[in-house]
What we know:
Number of helices: 12
CATH topology of the largest domain: Nucleotidyltransferase, domain 5
CATH architecture of the largest domain: 2-Layer Sandwich
Mean pLDDT: 90
Helix content: 25-40%
Structural class: alpha/beta
Strand order of the largest sheet: 3-2-1-4-5-6-9-10-11
CATH class of the largest domain: Alpha Beta
CATH superfamily of the largest domain: Ribonuclease H-like superfamily/Ribonuclease H
Radius of gyration: 34 Å
Number of domains: 3
Largest sheet: 9 strands, mixed
Order of helices and strands: HHHHHHHEEEHEHHEHHEEEEEE
Strand content: 15-25%
Number of strands: 11
Amino acid sequence: xxxxxxxxxxxxxxxxxxxxxxGTVHFxxxxxxxxxxxRFDFDDRKSGAARPWNRVxxxxxxxxxxxxxxxxxxxVLGEYGAPMIQAAxxxxxxxxxxxxxxxxxxxxxxxxxxxxxxxxxxxxxxxxYLPAVAQGKAALDCFDIVEDLxxxxxxxxxxxxxxxxxxxxxGAWPSEHVSAKSxxxxxxxxxxxxxxxxxxxxDNDTIFQGAHQWPDTLGRVIRLCLALQVTPVFAPxxxxxxxxxxxxxxxxxxxxxxxxxxxxxxxxxxxxxxxYIQARRQRNAQRLDSAPRRRAFPRPFRFxxxxxxxxxxxxxxxxxxxxxxxxxxxxLLVDAHWVNRLVRCEVHLHRSQIQCFALRRxxxxxxxxxxxxxxxxxxxxxxxxx
Length: 386
C-alpha cells in the first residue's frame, strides 16, 4: 500500500485495491513517513515489552491454584475464594503475596471460579393473581386516570383510560374534571358497546374506591360493578407490575396523541383521541378471536347507587411484619407466618366473609387459602348525589 501511494497512485484507489479503509492507508503512510520500506518493521505489535513487567510469575499462579484446590477440599469453613487464598499464602510466608484482585484475575484466567450468575425466572402470565384471567377464561378491564395535562391556551384536564388485558380494546375519555359520576358514565358507555367483563381493575384512587377516611366504604364505581355483576379488583398500593397494561397504554396515548399535536381546545383533542382509539382497536382486532367472551349488557339498565347488590370485591394487599393487613378501615390478622407478602383478599358481601389467598410471583399457580375471616358489611347508606 505504501509503495503504491509513493509511486503516485491515489490513496482512495489503493484502499479500494487492497480492500481496506482510507484511514488504514493513512495510518501506514504516517508510520512509514521518511523511512525506507526495505528497512521498516511492519509488525503490527504494540510497542513495549512482550510480557508486562508486573505480571505474576507462573510459579505464583500455580501456588494460587494449588491453594484453592486444597482449601476447597480441606477447609473447615468451606471458603476458598480470593481473600482466603491470600490469607493462606500469608500464613505460609509465601513471597510475594498477590493482592485479592490479582488472585481473582488468576482464578478467572484459568476458569476455576464458581458460576454465580443471576438466576432469572420466567415472568408470571398476565393477570396471574386471578386464576381465571391467567387461564384466559375471564375478561379483565383495567382503568386509570392521567391527571393534570395542560392545553396551551386552555385549562388543565385529565384523561380516564381503559384497556382490556387480552383483547387490547382501549379507551380514553379526556375531560376537565374526572369524578366518580363521570367514571360511571364512561364505564356504562364502554360496557354497553363491548359487553361486560368478569373483572374490572382499578388503583386505590378515591374516585374508584370511595372515601378512605371512613371504614366499610364502597364508592359509586364499586356499586356500579356490583349492580352489573362485575367483580372490582383493586391493585396493591405502591406495587409495580399489577397496572402494567394500563400504564403502558397511558404512555402510548400521551406519546401518540397528546405530545404529537398542538390542540386549540378540548374539543379538538377529543376528536383526535377518538380517531386514535378507533385506529388502535382496528389494529388489535386480531386479538379478539382468542380473548375471553364477554356477557351482554343488560337492557334496559338504570343505575341506582343506593341499591347494593350481592357480589364480591377483591383487594390485592401486602401484609405487614406481623402478618396483618389494612382493609376497609380495619386491621386484620391473616397469618403470622405470611409476613410482608402479597395476599388476594376476596370480600364476599353475600356470604359475610373475607377469604385471603397467598400470592407468589415465583409460583403463580400456587395460591393457598391462608384464612377465612368473618366480616359483616354494615350496609352503609349511600350519601352521595344521585
